[in-house]
Design goal:
heterodimer, A: 284 residues, alpha+beta, Heat Shock Protein 90, five-stranded mixed beta sheet, 5 strands, elongated, B: 218 residues, mainly alpha, membrane (chain B)
Chain lengths: 284, 218
């Protein structure tokens, strides 16, 4: 700001100087204390802000995921209803029409009969699909029963040889949790069918009082997570996000040539706003 | 003393160069600060030349005192966010101009050192500084405090103003009591050098983008 040049040649110091120097020192000590206090307080505020920001981000992620799941469930429900109320009805009508066709020779009758069987098969498959999409059906039948049906359906299709193991006495996990767990199961099953090239799949449900685990293990080609493309990586991330939404932990292990294992661990006693149905936007 | 003055001028020159080199990257407050440093360098050079020719550079000091206040006020105008405070800052510049007119008309003539204006300015700078510290506490940025140009500049202002206020008071006391004030003069020289050195550091670390983010976060 400025340099002031003053030259004074004068007497030696007086006793008052001590008071002045002590006052000046005290003032600077106070100033130093203020600065240290400011720095400490500022860093404390920074930490608080960081925690709050992370909490807000986590809440936002949860809300976003919840909204996505709700939209997905509504879409599934709509597709399920359409299959059940429209497509299968039309197919039943076609099957009936075929049965009423007369004035044909034996060869044509055999063809018609064969087509009727095929339509009956399509109707059954569509009804199964409709049930697996409908959350009402899942919540009504429970997780174990729904997974059993799904496993049977897969085995029947011949795409995969799946084995279902249930350990311990099953207990209800709550509608929300069971629905999310079933969607995770479907996502994992879909991944196995589409990408793994596996022949065998073992599904294990383990019920112990303070821990529930759902494990899917296949003997497919396996993968390294870092090498996955965005689509596959997003599918696995989706499984982890869904698990976290109900307070579960998803552990995904895979190595090239050693298949893949997906394990969902859930403490049923842990309360979650979304999973325990206290939320105003609760599915269903 | 001449050598110290030249070192002081060299320091101002170097900070001016650094400020000009980084001008585009600087936030508006630090752009104003760079302009202030350049103006200080010019003013101090003129003061020295006039002092050598006329043996009194106080008219320049009077003019510079008010200009410097306006510059520092505009730096804080950019840094402080409260609208009322911003209005008060603008008003204070006009108040200081009025005070300066009253000062050289009735108290300290143009040939005397403008200590009144400088003391009032320093008191107001301390207020600005405390207000900015408060604002920083209310809206902490993500970046480490020690990497924030605003923190170093504001700390520098607080320490400089309080130290110089004390130095002025003591020098006055020493002169009145016929005591040797050499140590206080050296103290003021060291404080001045440190003040500009820290301003130089704050100009070097300032970043327009970062400041925009941290202020927007608030």
């Amino acid at each position: 700001m400025r340099l002031v040049l003053i030259t004074v040649n004068s007497n030696p110091s007086s006793d008052e100087l001590y008071v002045i120097f002590f006052s000046a020192t005290a003032f600077f000590v106070f100033l130093a204390g203020f600065i240290i206090y400011f720095i400490v307080l500022y860093q404390k505020r920074q930490r608080q802000n960081k925690v709050e920001r992370e909490s807000l981000q986590a809440n936002f992620r949860q809300e976003f995921l919840k909204a996505r799941l709700e939209i997905q469930e509504q879409t599934f429900a709509h597709v399920s209803r359409e299959i059940h109320d429209n497509i299968t009805q039309v197919l039943s009508f076609v099957k009936l029409n075929l049965a009423m066709m007369g004035g044909t020779n034996a060869e044509q009758q055999a063809k018609i009969s064969e087509n009727r069987d095929l339509i009956a098969q399509v109707i059954t498959d569509l009804r199964d699909l409709s049930k697996s999409l409908s959350f009402e059906n899942i919540t009504k039948q429970g997780l174990v029963k729904t997974i059993e049906i799904e496993t049977r359906r897969i085995n029947k299709s011949g795409l995969l040889n799946s084995t279902l193991l249930i350990e311990g006495d099953s207990y209800p996990l709550g509608e929300q949790r069971e629905l999310v767990l079933f969607r995770i199961f479907q996502e994992a099953l879909n991944n196995t069918l589409k990408h793994s090239g596996a022949k065998d799949l073992t599904i294990a449900l383990q019920y112990i009082p303070e821990m529930f685990t759902l494990t899917l293990e296949d003997n497919g080609t396996g993968f390294l997570r870092d090498n996955l493309d965005d689509f596959m990586g997003a599918g696995l991330k989706n499984i982890e996000n869904r698990a976290s939404l109900i307070g579960a932990v998803a552990t995904i292990n895979s190595e090239p040539g050693n298949g893949c294992s997906i394990k969902i661990s859930l403490n049923p006693l842990e309360q979650r706003l979304y999973a325990d149905g206290n939320h105003q936007d609760h599915i269903g | 003393m001449d050598n110290q003055y030249y070192v002081y001028l060299l320091l101002l020159f170097l900070i001016s160069i650094a400020g000009v080199a980084r001008y585009k990257k600087l936030s508006p407050a630090f752009k104003t600060l760079t302009t202030l440093i350049i103006a200080t360098f010019i003013s101090e050079t003129i003061k020295k030349i006039i002092g050598k020719i006329f043996h009194n550079s106080m008219p320049v000091a009077h003019l510079w005192a008010i200009m410097e206040y306006a510059f520092f006020s505009f730096v804080y105008y950019h840094l402080l966010e409260d609208r009322l405070v911003k209005k008060a800052i603008i008003a204070s510049v006009f108040f200081m101009l009025l005070l300066e007119i009253v000062n050289f008309s009735f108290f300290e003539t143009l040939l005397q050192f403008p200590s009144l204006i400088l003391n009032v300015s320093q008191f107001i700078y301390v207020l600005y500084s405390l207000l900015l510290f408060r604002q920083m506490l209310l809206n902490p940025a993500e970046e480490s405090l020690f990497k924030q140009s605003v923190f170093w500049f504001n700390l520098d202002m607080l320490l400089y103003c309080t130290a110089m206020f004390l130095d002025f008071a003591l020098t006055d006391y020493f002169i009145k009591n016929n005591l040797d004030a050499t140590i206080l003069i050296y103290f003021s020289i060291v404080v001045n050098m440190l003040f500009y050195a820290v301003i130089g550091v704050s100009i070097l670390i300032d970043n327009r983008k970062y400041n925009a983010v941290s202020f927007n976060n608030s």
